[in-house]
Write a structure and sequence with these properties.
Layout (H helix, E strand, L loop, with lengths): L21 E9 L1 H7 L6 H8 L9 E7 L6 E7 L2 H12 L7 E10 L9 H10 L7 H22 L8 E9 L1 E2 L2 E2 L5 H16 L5 E7 L8 E7 L2 H11 L3 H4 L2 E3 L3 E5 L2 H7 L4
Antiparallel strand pairs: 1-3, 1-4, 2-3, 2-11, 5-9, 5-10, 5-11, 6-7, 8-9
Helix pairs in contact: 4-5
């Protein structure tokens, strides 16, 4: 990094990232005593639905709502947008709705999408092929490198501005890489870290078509370094993938995990009915 950038390289002030989108995870719990004071809950349901769906404000590029299992929360929203105030605007709209006085925000996670430094570029991918025994002069080698290069823009887009799948089950958890004596991730050589992350990715690929993930960076933005959101076609796959991947060195030696939130994709109306608000 150049410590003395030229004037032309200094970006203009902006809250929109140069690369990637902001991401927000918001979790809420109903205050039943406050609900009892509201009355006419059915009449106010439209206000709640409008807030959760961002129907009358600038709507984030990505937005989903979930019923949350367990006592940690009752429901949650996950959203992504280039503008962080568009994301937080949904939260403010929820809290200023008629039901806002009966809601307790219990957890939030602020992060941004990024292209991981462990995603190999074309040259790194070619070197990996050579290490695994591929002949760099062969037509097969050239075809594999060309195919990988062609896929890279799609891989970048999926990490920076991913589509949210309409799959029924979701879990979210924050995580760090540990800095313990004898197990400090950030003191490992880049080559070793890339190898461990490649092993980690290979474990995840075994769940393709059943689980998809979004890893967002919260370094400098929240209390943890990364947030992991998993969507699955069945909640059983959430359990299986997390269990499987914890045997990888990146997790077994260097992973530190926060609390897990498990949720199920639901419309605002479904959330109200499931929580016995209506």
């Amino acid at each position: 990094m150049n410590p003395h950038p030229s004037a032309t390289s200094i970006p203009e002030p902006s809250i929109v990232p140069v690369q990637g989108w902001h991401c927000g995870h918001y979790f809420y719990r109903w205050n039943r005593n406050a609900l009892a004071q509201l009355g006419k809950l059915e009449a106010n349901s439209h206000d709640f639905s409008t807030a959760l769906q961002a129907s009358d404000i600038p709507k984030p590029e990505r937005l989903q709502s979930f019923i949350i299992a367990g006592h940690k929360a009752d429901f949650a929203i996950i959203s992504m947008d280039p503008n962080p105030l568009t994301i937080d605007g949904v939260h403010q709209r929820i809290m200023s709705s008629v039901f806002g006085c009966a809601l307790e925000p219990v957890y939030s996670f602020v992060s941004m999408s990024e292209i991981s430094e462990y995603l190999p570029d074309k040259e790194q991918y070619a070197k990996k092929l050579v290490r695994t025994g591929e002949d760099p002069t062969s037509a097969t080698f050239q075809a594999k490198v060309a195919s990988y290069e062609k896929r890279l823009p799609m891989m970048y887009a999926q990490r920076l501005a991913p589509e949210f799948p309409n799959w029924p089950a979701m879990c979210f958890y924050p995580m760090n890489k540990v800095r313990h004596v004898g197990a400090n991730w950030f003191l490992e050589p880049l080559s070793a870290r890339m190898e461990m992350m490649a092993e980690h990715a290979q474990s995840g690929m075994a769940f393709a078509g059943r689980v998809t993930q979004l890893v967002t960076a919260s370094v400098g933005l929240d209390d943890w370094e990364w947030g992991v959101t998993l969507w699955a076609k069945n909640p059983q796959y959430l359990k299986e993938i997390v269990y499987t991947m914890r045997y990888d060195s990146a997790s077994a030696r260097f992973g530190e995990f926060g609390q897990f939130f498990t949720g199920y994709l639901a419309s605002p109306e479904t959330i109200l009915r499931h929580c016995r608000i209506l």
